[in-house]
Amino acid sequence: MSNNDSATAAKAPKKRTRRTQERTEITRAKVLEAATRIFSEQGFEGVSIRDIENAAGVQRGLVAYHFDDKDNLWKTVVDATFGLMRDEFTHRQEIMKELTERDRLAFVVRFYVRFHAKHPELSRLMSQEARQHSWRIDYLTDNHIRPAAQLMEKLVKETQGLDRDQFIHWYYIMVSASSTIFSFAPECELLFGVDSRTEIRVEKHADMLVDMLFGKMK
């Protein structure tokens, strides 16, 4: 075998490995995208693994191959969605260092509005799970919701002077108001003939929510 033949033979397994990795990544991405949409629309109990495979357009058995079972797939969806929020927020933390505490809190509220506008599946997923006790709401609360809520409570106490009982109501007002118009986008379009997720509409919503929660910001 010539040197050229040897080099070609050595490259072939690498190419096959790279193609296999690419196919694996594409399949996982398809499954995660489909599972995120279906879990948020129909809830965990209303969805089967076969439903997800059909929606993703992948062969039977690939969900189990890549994610073991429906429970683990659901956790992966949740971790990926909240991980995206955490990553986007982290990229903006340098901006927050230059702000007063009150403006920092307003910045966080605006971030929530903008994120929910881009990812309405998050609030839809939460509305599916937060209505009843289950291992899933325990997982969501322990791993994602409580840490963020505790940080927000600290900011609200420092800037607004609210106690724990007052913060509970403030928190749910903020969470609901920052997301409902986007998760209910089809209803908004039917009622008012507008797309709630346009950039102008999102910014108007963020401005109004900040004004409602804090009064006119100077």
UniProtKB/TrEMBL annotation:
Residue ranges of the region described as Disordered: 1-24
Ranges of the DNA-binding region feature: 48-67
Gene Ontology MF term list: DNA-binding transcription factor activity; transcription cis-regulatory region binding
UniProt keyword list: DNA-binding
Pfam family for this entry, one: TetR_N
Highest taxon above the source species: Bacteria
PANTHER family xrefs: HTH-TYPE TRANSCRIPTIONAL REGULATOR PKSA, HTH-TYPE TRANSCRIPTIONAL REGULATOR RUTR
Protein's recorded name: HTH tetR-type domain-containing protein
Gene source species: Oceanicoccus sagamiensis
Lineage of origin: Bacteria, Pseudomonadati, Pseudomonadota, Gammaproteobacteria, Cellvibrionales
